């Protein structure tokens, strides 16, 4: 081989050797790009488990909690409403049909404070034309009879020496009777019924407008003491009322303790009314008739594994499941049975063992991985 050919071959080999290191990394990076992208994304495995890389767990803010076994008081939820204490609230109704007039301080408005016995409004009776004419005619007859009785009494008193004392007393009694009857008829024509506050508190509702015509027994005002409100709930299983240990009100994400006052002994709408009292400051922010949600704990206890209610999810078969962390990046679904505890936690009675790590925060995100 000539020297020229030998140098040309060496140059080709060097060019090939220099080109291989540059091309190999580019080809290798191109081949591994797809597997790296797949490995960094959560995915559901063929066996139903979910693979979630650590980096994604941090982005999803996943948290797992070791489940603890024990015996816990069983609980149930009730729908309730805010009611007034019958000893610290009342209703103001019209006893007569008539027209409303403002009281000495005007008509009160909702939220206004009132004192017990304060005159809130007046009801002026409205009589028909015939009834009023009869009253006026009766008043005229009584006036005439009164005038005659006055003159008769005056004559008998002048003849007191010759007239028996009993005759004078009878005439005076008749005059007094006519005077009282005339006053009663006159008061009936100008009478007005005063509507007074039955208790001290605030006006919860008002249906009063000056000049309004109301019927007898029509509700005009409601007065309530905000510091003495009650919670009324309906239990559709009367046995629940016999097993109440404690209760609390779920209000704005906080648990307000309640005290069980008692249960009625007669059904209302096929349910047993239950009554609870609580902190005056907490209940004072509620409105009369406002719907609330109660969590009642019973004396009965249930054995199980306690987990937060946020850990419960639903699978495609609409079964209750929890996601158990079996490995650093592996979550397995478990079908469970549970009983409510306190409105925040549940007791899993089947499908979960104590000590297993259950996904709590972010469990809904794991359930959405496909």
From TrEMBL:
Would the keyword Signal be found if you checked this record's keyword annotation? yes
Q: Where is the region Disordered?
A: 31-50
Keywords, in A-Z order: Signal, Transport
Domain of life of the source: Bacteria
Q: Where is the Multidrug resistance protein MdtA-like C-terminal permuted SH3 domain?
A: 306-363
Q: Record's GO cellular component, any one?
A: cell envelope
Biological processes annotated in GO:
copper ion export; plasma membrane copper ion transport
Stretch forming the signal peptide: 1-26
What residue ranges carry the coiled-coil annotation? none
User: What PANTHER family does the entry give?
Assistant: CATION EFFLUX SYSTEM PROTEIN CUSB, SLR6042 PROTEIN
This protein's name: Multidrug resistance protein MdtA-like C-terminal permuted SH3 domain-containing protein
Source organism of this protein record: Alicycliphilus denitrificans (strain DSM 14773 / CIP 107495 / K601)
């Amino acid at each position: 081989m000539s020297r020229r050919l030998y140098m040309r071959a060496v140059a080709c080999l060097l060019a090939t050797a220099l080109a291989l290191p540059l091309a190999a990394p580019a080809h290798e990076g191109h081949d591994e790009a797809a597997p790296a992208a797949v490995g960094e994304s959560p995915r559901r495995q063929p066996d139903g488990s979910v693979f979630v890389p650590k980096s994604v767990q941090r982005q999803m803010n996943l948290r797992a909690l070791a489940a603890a076994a024990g015996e816990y008081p069983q609980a149930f939820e009730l729908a309730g409403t805010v009611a007034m204490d019958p000893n610290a609230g009342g209703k103001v109704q019209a006893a007569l049909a008539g027209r409303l007039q403002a009281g000495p301080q005007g008509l009160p408005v909702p939220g206004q404070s009132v004192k017990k016995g304060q005159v809130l409004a007046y009801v002026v009776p409205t009589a028909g034309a015939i009834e009023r004419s009869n009253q006026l005619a009766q008043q005229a007859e009584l006036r005439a009879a009164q005038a005659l009785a006055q003159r008769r009494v005056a004559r008998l008193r002048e003849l007191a020496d010759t007239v028996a004392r009993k005759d004078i007393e009878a005439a005076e009694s008749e005059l007094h009777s006519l005077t009282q009857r005339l006053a009663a008829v006159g008061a009936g024509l100008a009478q007005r019924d005063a509507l007074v506050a039955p208790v001290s508190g605030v006006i919860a509702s008002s249906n009063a407008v000056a000049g309004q015509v109301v019927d007898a027994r029509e509700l005009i005002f409601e007065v309530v003491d905000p510091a003495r409100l009650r919670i009324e709930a309906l239990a559709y299983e009367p046995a629940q009322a016999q097993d109440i240990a404690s209760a609390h009100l779920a209000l704005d994400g906080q648990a307000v303790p309640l005290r069980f006052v008692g249960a009625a002994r007669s059904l209302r709408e096929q349910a047993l009314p239950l009554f609870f009292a609580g902190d005056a400051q907490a209940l004072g922010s509620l409105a009369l008739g406002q719907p609330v949600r109660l969590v009642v704990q019973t004396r009965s206890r249930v054995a199980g594994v306690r987990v937060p209610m946020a850990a419960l999810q639903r699978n495609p078969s609409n079964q209750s499941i929890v996601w158990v962390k079996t490995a650093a990046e592996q979550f397995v679904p478990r079908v469970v049975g549970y009983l409510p505890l306190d409105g925040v936690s549940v007791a899993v009675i089947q499908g979960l063992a104590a000590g297993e790590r259950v996904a709590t925060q972010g469990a809904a995100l794991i359930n959405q991985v496909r």
